[in-house]
Fold:
Amino acid sequence: MNRRQKEEYLRDYSVLKAQGKPFFPYAVAKDGAMACLVLLVIILMSILLGAELGPKADPTTTTYTPRPEWYFFFLFELLRVIKPPEYVALATIGIPTICMIMLFLLPFYDRGPERRPERRPVATLTAILIIGAMGYLTYEGAAAGPPTQIDTPTPASVIAEGPKVVQQYEAGRQVAAQSGCLACHKIGENGNGGPGPALTDIADRLPAAGIQRTLINPTAPMPSFKSLQTNQPEKFKNLVAFLGRLKSESGTAGAANPGTGSGG
Amino acid sequence: MPKLKLPVPPLPPSMRPPPKRPGAPKTKPLDAAQEAGIYTVDWIDERTSLSGGLRWLMFRKVPKGTNWFYTLGSATMFAFVSQAITGVFLAMYYRPDAAGGAYESVRHINDDVFLGEFVHGMHKWGSSVMVILIFLHMARTFFFGAYKYPRELNWVIGVALLILTFVMSLTGYLLPFDQRSYWATIVANNITASGPFVGPYLGDFLNGGAEFNATTLSRFYAIHMMLVPGIIGALIGAHLYLVAKLGTTAPPWVKAKPADELTEERA
Structure:
């Protein structure tokens, strides 16, 4: 806005203001009515939805899937949409930071004198697009529940290793299913395809020792499984044994095996 | 005899009290009470000169065309006040003890304290309501072009308030210390620590160490109930001062037409 436009705005505004009504009691009455409505909604939500307390926090279990408050779902889902691991930092830090800076600086790069939304098509469309994207991501994030079952067939190579290994493999499958891995990783057809990489053939890329190292000292945002190792070393060993045998050639060799998959 | 004259509220003519009749008796008990009230207000005003500021704040005009969309800002503030009040009552019973006391105290609030779960629920759902209202208020400001000259600074303060509101929900989410809040906070802290430059320091600050430990909870509690609410309160004050000083915008499609006297003059 140049100087003439600024002065024009201030002049028009002072006329509009002079023709307006006093804040008290007219605006105060409206604000008060709105405040009553807000209070009513909060009270109703409290009565109807309550404030349920989940199970007590237990750092030694990893059987819980992290889930944020619903209004963070769009950020959460953004992580899942942007899949390649090298871009995870972009989703967690990059995009939110850029959006925040753009939001802060809005009045400094959008300085046109026009205020009517229909005459600012770029601004209006961008805003509608962003609101739509946030709404969509929130919806998707709310809908995506973490599965707790892994029903991949037991590969022939594992069966060939003998019943003891099969037992360990199945136990590890159960630990993986209950540990919330599937919230961020895909194993076969199970789980969500991000933000973490698919684990279907993780053993092709990482040896068991490497998998163990990653579980204990993961890259953010994955939580560490160190506490599982210290508190329940048997479970941890089974988990590593299971993940360390997820190879791509497993295919359909070992057909479905009754009694596999994990009960809840 | 008080010097202060209370301003007559600008009520519509039908609601104004009728003027006193000349023959009516002078002092009824009600009049005496009113006199005492006026005297007290006058005593305070003589020493603080508050009445001028109050008059400036309350009897400023809001422009023509102001509609219900303009109540979203005050509704957000009201939601914050509601959060502050319910929060004070929750803080009376809450213990930020990661060893189990925190969870136990929230369970105590829910199960034993009179109206405990109700107040806890108001605080929990009030946060959702506040987030929704702050977004609606921001959308109104955006679509009405109200962030433009001369209100740029107020927009910046508003965005800071939005981010602080998110900080409040993030820190408050941990406090019940159940599985949900614990694991969500671990991930959130991991994400924070993965940021470039300040990320690791911020992560260390939030965790109170290299990773989640016993002091993290009390840290989050202090941030949640003292640091951030204090900053939010101060920023709301600045936000309101600028609103009162610059005036609320009129809807962009309301056009100013010149005052009647001017048109007549021109004719």
User: Anything to note?
Assistant: The beta strands of chain A are 21-22, 186-187, 190-191. The first strand of chain A starts at residue 21 and ends at 22.
